[in-house]
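User: Predict the structure for this protein chain, please.
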Amino acid sequence: MTETTHTQTTPPGDGAKQHSPEYRVAVDSLRGLRQDLIHDAFSYRPLPGRRTDGRIVRRLPGRLREYAAWLPHALISVAALITVAFATAPSGGPELLLGPLCAIPVLLTMVRPVGAFWASMVSTPVVAVLGSDWGEWPWAAGSFACHLTVLTIVAMRTRPRAAGWMWALTALYALVADGIGPTDTYGTNSAPMLIISAMILLCVTVWQVRRHAEQEVTAQQTVTAHERSRRTLLEERTTIARELHDVVAHHMSVVAIQAEAAPYRVENPPPELEKAFVTIRENAVAALTELRRVLGVVRAEDYEAPDAPQPTLAELDGLLANVRDAGLSVDKAVTGAVRELPQGVELSAYRIVQEALSNSLRHAPGATARVEISYVLGGLGLRIVNGPPPNPSLIKPSPGAGHGITGMRERVSMLNGGMTAGRTDDGGYEVAVYLPVALPDEGDA
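Assistant: Here is the predicted structure, written as structure tokens:
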């Protein structure tokens, strides 16, 4: 038996060429040049107006605020007039031609920024030849001001990499122009142009990088705040589900026990009645099992069901005593006929009062608070209000600010209630809640 080994070799060609790192850097650089300054160089990109919601602009009257949106366009127009003034200064050239040649590239930055750079590069030698007496080479006074203005505006309207390419092309033009221009070394102004333009482009690039970094940080903070709020909402829903499990499980257990004991309380019950009670008990046990199975999905692994029953409004006095011990002066007022409410409503009302008082302790240390409970026809009203903090300097920043309000709204929404929360006229804070409760007649229906 003969074993044959085939060695596959890649034929020499384009796929087998291994380019040096320098070559790849050069290719990438030329690709960046094409993308920034050549591809769609004269595409239409109108200059957007200034935002009118800034700290200074929004204080202006309505008419001036509308005009403020056109401030960038006005500044560019003024810069164009300045270049015309430099270009039409006594230079021995045709002033009617030199003025537009220097102003058009500046005005073009408002609609076609990259094209304005190429227009400035083309107009520069034309203006130098027509209007220079070889004392200003290769930039005449008008083209000097025009090119600096165009570089600044285009750098602000494009990416930072484009600023580097514009300066490199400007330097390349300066070297070529100095080589073919007058031989007098002191007659060239390439060095001032390159130094001043480098400083301007560096400042613009730093400004752009900082602005982009601030935008990214702001966007990241917005996403983080949204995710934090979403996570808090999910955690609050999980907490509500756990508490409701304890409430519902208690009632279902009572139903199962009563259904099992009911036949023994009746002498000689008919078989149909015994069968009905057995069915009730089996359904109650099955519902309880399914409820625990579903709640096991949202419960944490280290969660332990409380041994004591869930709190109700009857335990509110103990909560207020704990809050007073923590330093918050709080009063309670109850109006209406006190009656027993569904346990889910009692639990939600207790948690809402608890969270509102916790917020008062956290955000208004030393203030006074008041809890009002109103038993009204068809529901329960809650109002928790605290005064302004006597010493605002004691307030410490809290990263979870606003999440307690989210949990309150979730509980109220679960019970189809209504809630308002906001600051009072005196600088305090108020939470008002209404939780509907079905009337006995409605429940029977």
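The chain has 13 helices and five strands.
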